[in-house]
Amino acid sequence: MSNNLRLYLWIALAALLWIDYTTWTAEFAQPAGGPSVASSIPAKPSSLANRIPQSQAPAPRAASTQKSVSASLPVPPAQAGAPSGQAPLIHVRTNVYDLDISTQGGTLVKVDLLKYARVTGKPARLQLENTHPATEYLLQTGLTGPAGRAYPNQGALYSAPHLSYRLGKAKEFLVPLTWSEDGITVTKTFVFHRGSYRIGLKYTIENRSASPWRASQYAQLFRNDPRTKVSYFDPNSRAYHGPAIWNGKEYVQLDPASSEYQHYERDVTGGWIAVPQLDFVSAVVPRKSSTYRFSSQVAGSQYALSAVGPMHTVAPGATLTLSQTLFVGPTLHSQLEKTDPTLTYLALSGWFAILARPLFWLLSQVHRVTGNWGVAIIVVTFLLKLLFYPLSEASGRSMAKMKALGPRIKSIQEMYKDDKEKLSRAMIEIYKREKVNPVSGCLPMILQLPVFIAFYWVLLYSVELRQAPFIFWIKDLSARDPYFILPAIMAVTGFLQFKLNPAPPDPVQAKVMMVMPIAMAALFAFFPSGLVLYYVVNSLLSIAQQWNINRRIAAATKRK
Questions:
Q1: If residue 218 lies in a helix (H) or strand (E), which one and from where to where?
Q2: Model's pTM, two decimal places?
Q3: For the segment 77-110, what is each residue's pLDDT rounded down to a tens digit?
Q4: Given 3.90.70.10, 2.70.98.90, 3.20.20.70, 3.40.50.360, which CATH number is that of 88-227+234-343?
Q5: What is the rounded CA–CA span in Å between residue 122 and residue 396?
Q6: DSSP 27-41
Q7: Where are the domains of the chain?
Q8: How far apart are alpha carbons 256 and 301 in whole angstroms?
Q9: From CA 165, how far away is CA 163, in angstroms rounded?
Q10: For the segment 22-59, what is each residue's pLDDT rounded down to a tens digit?
């Protein structure tokens, strides 16, 4: 009975991993017969990238009477009439970014992440925002309002005091852009911080006209994201990439392939919008106290996700300051949490996040001490083994007793091979007499399975492990073992575990259980090496534990 259950558990685990893969395939494969980009996307001048979100927010607030406390920054004349695509770019370099801001709209048009390579060991940096036609990705921000007036939206032209900024030794610096028209002056200021992927954005509105001026703050994430073929050999291709929001209560992925989300619209308080892709994200976090209108539009492989804030009225002679926060970079748990605690759902979400979050916390605390993520995985695996030791001990004792009873059970099976009823009674009798519960050996495996899956998600979707070296040939714990050494060790340890456990009485089952370690190693061969390392260490600890239990049981049997 226990052998059958163990077999079913191994098959269930393999099936679970297969279902996980096929589900990803079903979710992210290009729909058959879907419209092509060429047939469904309008020409560039009218594409979603140039869509100006319109204010549909709650009623206007009271006019602001706050006066400006600082003099306007000296700026050169506005580059009025500069053709689209030829507006000067402002180059900004910090210790984590190399990016460009267009003076047309103050749009982030290129963001290179200096600490992350596209490919391990290669000089080319990983790029998020970009203007490449096939993968265009823009973070657009501005002010919008009632028709009939000009606004500093993503199509407006700004002027800037400088076209190049470097962080140097400062902890932060400001990049101001200015727009003026009809007596209204808006200073749009980006705030960059040392070592941070959080970008502050502030608008200072001065009304020097003779009439009130109304405007809403907005942000829009635009992306051209052609669906790529899902590959089992590439974890990046299986992860969700597309628009996502926090609606104030829960994390929602607005899958562009779903008709439900192709024209999504909702008023949200305390939320944010984002475009995640595996370990990286571009996100906009409005003020928590304000209600924003979130909306999405999809056209073929293009989509635009926008957030439009409440309408504000600036009285003549008054000044108003508005602000919001941007996050562009890796989904580092610590930085996401500092920006907004709910942003951590971009790193770990779903049912297993309940277990995955404390596991990641433990892993990160151990990493602080060891300084090596591979060593941290080994230590945490040992701690998890220690946590489940009472269950594993009970399971191990049961399997050791079953192994010791093997010759007697085989003899009974031979004796009653033609009488199943007598065989069943004889088996129950020997189990009772020897105080062996064949099911007890399987229960710990069932209880540990959720922890295993949670740790799987932690290791697969933690950017902290991206391109993190371990030792010798393992240069990236988030990538597969380049020489398949760990999977080979995994196969060997699996076979040793099989030999330490009682052999199934059925020859067919015995052969299946013998081949299972090789099948599991082949399945894990293209998984992140950090996950395989966890499995190998766990197997080695299990082997040591089972060997010790078998030795003690055998010694006790001899004394009897």
A1: strand 213-224
A2: 0.77
A3: 333 333 445 799 999 999 999 999 999 999 999 9
A4: 2.70.98.90
A5: 47
A6: HHSPPTTPPPHHHHS
A7: 88-227+234-343, 356-462+474-559
A8: 8
A9: 7
A10: 444 443 333 333 322 222 333 343 467 777 887 754 33
